[in-house]
Write a structure and sequence with these properties.
The protein has 15 helices and 22 strands. By secondary structure, the protein is α+β, with helices and mostly antiparallel strands. Strands 13-12-9-10-11-14-21-19 form an eight-stranded antiparallel beta sheet, with helices on both faces. The protein has a five-stranded parallel beta sheet with strand order 3-2-1-4-5. It is globular, with a radius of gyration of 21 Å. 33% of the residues lie in helices and 26% in strands. Strand 10 and strand 11 form a beta hairpin. It is an enzyme of class 6 (ligase).
């Protein structure tokens, strides 16, 4: 087992990894920007090293500085969390070259699954169904030809990147040229890769993902599904497990096929397979996230498996002790992403000082957050402040518990999405479990975000 792990991240996920390390008897060292000097993860880690100024390009994305910090601190492994360098193949390759363990899959497999087109091809070969789509497109003329073949409406997606960027719904040929050009410019700037692909659009699609774990000896399990259908601009805002609508036998089928597929491509560590499910319960592979997901706590609550500890054990070379029959699903969990955004003003990003901070408590309530009273929310990073997660014996109990927890949660000093989540948890469509990827957009007026 590792003696010391460097955490190449910030915020709530950095604190999450620090806590797992402490429980495992592993020393933690965190790298941080000047803007995060007084953050809770920096205060909590055993050691901390400043790697640059506030902008992430000069700090959390600065690979030479992070590797230097690992050498200076004698860290044996690096946990990348999510975002930043967590799916950066160059970073994973450099870690390997300098004999530092990257807590995640190999760079070669990450490269295949990080490219959405090659990932589709690999999963088709492994037996997973996919939507009709195209190879990588880089010119408008070839994209026009492909669009006519697939038909409208269709989805346009960036080959690289994530976070909802470079994804567009195109409803008719009249708007295709304009949207393709805008999206390509966006992803070229964001990801230094202007590759685009097109995919058939599924009406009222549900976004279902499967959590997998595979050790270095090829033994793997799945830990059930998460329903991530509540999205705004292709960004998840609420996740739950299990799915409130899909039949259990269908979810088990997707899980079993998913774990066999990732074993076939030689995947290692934790990963998530993402699917679209249509109204006839036909499912299609979309993409794979080769890292820990923001929404991993809902899986932890319904399976009682600590995914971060399992990541560390696998990376250290230990065999996975869990078998598929050991995974028991109990109850229902819901996660609300609390962000520094004003939902009443088109989710305008917020910065400022947290003047008062009071977390909810009681049975079945978990808060993953790096906030404290007096904390200054910086302008340089993602707007996620907290993940409020609840568990209940039934979905109805989980909804009631989340509604109670949201009422108790106090963050003063800047606008947050707590009021929006209260409205969402009270919406009849959500209560019925009838959510899909365009649910928030179509119910915007009822949710007060129109």
């Amino acid at each position: 087992m590792f003696r010391k792990i460097l955490i190449a991240n910030r915020g709530e996920i950095a604190l999450r990894v620090i806590r797992a390390c402490r429980e495992m008897g592993i020393r933690s060292v965190i790298v941080h920007s000047e803007a995060d000097r007084d953050s809770l993860p920096v205060q909590s880690a055993d050691e901390s090293i400043c790697i640059g100024p506030g902008p992430s390009g000069k700090s959390y994305l600065n690979i030479p500085n992070i590797i230097s910090a690992a050498f200076i601190s004698n860290a044996e492994a690096i946990h990348p969390g999510y975002g930043f360098l967590s799916e950066n193949t160059s970073f994973a390759e450099i870690c390997k070259d300098v004999n530092i363990t990257f807590i995640g899959p190999s760079a070669s497999v990450m490269s295949v699954m990080g490219d959405k087109v090659s990932a589709r091809e690999a999963m088709i070969k492994a037996g997973l169904p996919t939507l009709p789509g195209t190879p990588v497109l880089r010119t408008l003329s070839e994209a026009q030809d492909a669009a006519r073949e697939i038909g409208f409406p269709l989805m346009l997606k960036a080959v690289a990147g994530g976070g909802g960027r470079g994804i567009r719904l195109i409803k008719s040929p009249d708007e295709f040229d304009r949207i393709f050009t805008i999206a390509q410019n966006e992803v070229r700037e964001a990801f230094r890769d202007d590759g685009i692909y097109l995919e058939r659009y599924v009406e009222k699609a549900r976004h279902i993902e499967i959590q997998v774990l595979v050790d270095n000896y090829g033994h793997g399990i799945h830990l059930g599904e998460r329903n991530c259908s509540c999205q705004r601009r292709n960004q998840k805002v609420l996740e739950e497990s299990p799915s409130p609508i899909l039949p259990r036998e269908l979810c088990e089928e997707i899980g079993q096929k998913g774990i066999r597929a990732v074993q076939e491509i030689g995947y290692r560590n934790a990963g998530t397979l993402e699917f679209l499910v249509d109204e006839q319960n036909r499912y299609y592979f979309m993409e794979m996230n080769t890292r820990l997901q923001v929404e991993h706590p809902v899986t932890e609550l319904v399976t009682s498996v600590d995914l971060v500890k399992e990541q560390i054990r696998i990376a250290s070379g230990l065999p996975l002790q869990l078998k598929q029959e050991d995974i028991k699903f109990r109850g229902h969990a819901i996660e609300c992403r609390i962000t520094a955004e004003d939902a009443d003003a088109d989710f305008r990003p917020q910065t400022g000082t947290v003047e008062r901070y009071q977390v909810p408590g009681g049975p079945g309530v978990r808060v993953d957050s790096h906030l404290y009273a007096g904390y200054e929310v910086p302008p340089h990073y993602d707007s996620l402040l907290s993940k409020l997660v609840v568990w209940g014996e039934t979905r109805n109990e989980a909804i009631a518990r989340m509604q109670r927890a949201l009422d108790e949660y106090v963050i003063e000093g800047l606008a947050t999405t707590i009021p929006f989540h209260k409205r969402l948890l009270s919406h009849e469509g959500f209560i019925k479990g009838d959510t899909y990827t365009r649910f928030l957009q179509e119910e915007a007026e009822a949710l007060g975000i129109g």
